[in-house]
Amino acid sequence: KQWYQRRVRGKRVIDYAVKIRVRPDQLGVVTDGVKHSMNPFDENAVEEAVRMKQKKIVKEIIVASCGPSQAQETIRTALAMGADRGIHVELAKGEEALQPLAIAKIFAALVEKEKPDLVILGKQAIDDDSNQTTQLLAGLLNWPQGTMASVVEHSEGKLTITREIDGGLEDISVKLPAVISADLRLNEPRYATLPNIMRQRRRRSRR
Amino acid sequence: MTLRRSVIQLYKELQYMGREYPGGAAKFNTKCKQAFLNNSQEVDPVKIEMLIERGRFVQKEIEALYGLRKYRAMKHRYYDTEEMDLQTKGLKSSLKIYSGYFRNNEILCNSNDLKFE
Q1: Chain mean position to CA B95
Q2: What number of other Cβ atoms are within 10 A of residue A60's Cβ?
Q3: For the whole model, what pTM was predicted?
Q4: Could you tell me where the beta strands, DSSP code E, fall in chain B?
Q5: What is the mean pLDDT of each run of 10 residues along chain A (207 residues)?
Q6: Residue of A nearest to B60 (CA)
Q7: Pairing of strands A118-122, A178-182
Q8: What is the pLDDT of residue A139?
Q9: CB < 8 Å to B17, chain A
Q10: Mutation test of the interface with chain B: which of A46, A124, A164, A191, choosing the one with the most B Cβ atoms within 10 A?
Q11: In this structure, are residues A62 and A110 in contact, taking their beta carbons and an 8 Å threshold?
């Protein structure tokens, strides 16, 4: 049995159930005072990481998030779901609208530093719906990628991934280290209950 | 953990979960408080344990509700659900005819939703 280290990405977005309102100055969407939470696809990613850890395929889960200081809450949610460590890349007020390429570059730098064997991201963020970060990251790292994964199985340094594509399903096999993006049907994310969140509140994630 | 602390812990957890309640957090939290107040005079430890169990059950149900709600919302937004919508509509209307014959039609409807989504 081999144990790996894995990085998961959690993006802080406006909660999926919130009714979005356009700002009066027409320059964007109202975000002040609006409920934010972790991107649902990123929840699938974190859940997959935690399940792999429970199956002892993975030794350590690191969650990383780029965003303002409130992104700490997102990281804490992921820690409450079962991740081990959190890394918060803090962005100043004006830098919040970072494009996928910039995020991918930040992540590539993090990967160089932490050296995980597997990176899982959510398929796309529900606020910008770009579905690019995974692919860009894989390209920057020159790692194989399995995007839109709905089933991930592991065996001897390789992953067999079932992807959901337009025509149906596609099975691919990728060698680790690799980048995966989680799709909706990958798993059912667990709810981060209050006791777990309280436990994480005492931990501080690295900046 | 003493019974008293278990009850308080349960109450806190339910209040925390009430944040995301579809009808509004305030509505859920007041109902939750009322439910706890109604049973606040219990002294029989066995009965209290049963009530705590019921509270835990409700907690699990709400977790399932949130998960299902989120799944459905994502599914409708990102996937083509025209076919499945027609299917569920057809089945739901036929279920309405039969629901009069069954007491626990609520359970039937819920299980149907889970099957086709």
Answers
A1: 21
A2: 16
A3: 0.80
A4: none
A5: 72 84 82 86 92 88 87 88 87 72 90 89 88 92 92 88 90 91 90 80 61
A6: A191
A7: parallel
A8: 94
A9: 191, 193-194
A10: A191
A11: no
